[in-house]
Amino acid sequence: MPIRYYDAAAxxxxxxxxxxxxxxxxxxxxxxxxxxxVDFTSPCDPPEGGWRVVDPELTTDAALNDAISVANxxxxxxxxxxxxxxxxxxxxxxxxxxxxVTGDIxxxxxxxxxxxxxxxxxxxxxxxxxxxxxIQNSLPMDGMMSSSQDVTTGTIxxxxxxDDGTLQRQLDAEHGPGVVRVISALQPAN
Length: 190
Known about the structure:
- It is a single chain.
- 27% of the residues lie in helices and 27% in strands.
- By secondary structure, the chain is of the alpha/beta class.
- Strand 1 and strand 2 form a beta hairpin.
- It is built from 6 helices and 8 strands.
- The chain has 2 domains: 2-34 and 128-186, no CATH class; 56-124, Histidine-containing Protein, Chain: A (2-Layer Sandwich).
- The strands form 3 sheets. Strands 3-4-5 form a 3-stranded mixed sheet.
């Protein structure tokens, strides 16, 4: 399958190389390889004594659902995701919530401990999920293929047909560097 690059000035495609289909995805430009590879592991360092269940009675699926609901309803909620990499023993719950908030981490953790007794990571965020949604909804539609929020980093990934760097610079100036990461499906010819 050919790897094509787009020359915006000439409005043409250039075939840089032809690769067997099985090798195609590994040979894509770095911008395309990097997208969609979200790291769902916990951003928190292991607590003193290691990750452990603090209240086995509150590690049911219902308790997990309650914890997720509480986390999403908190003022300053910035994202919730589950991590399965910290399970210290077979009796531990399969999913461990990671919660990002713009508010007081200790207050949030205390509130979540009322409903969840398993491993828990509460980490700081710069923007709430609502603020990120406002940014996402304000993105230019011209040439946009799709956009999504990355709750683990508090950023937005914007897929466009082509960006020569102009849109990325504009969005960095408007929202701050790295808040919106523009990924151009077409790469310029070298």
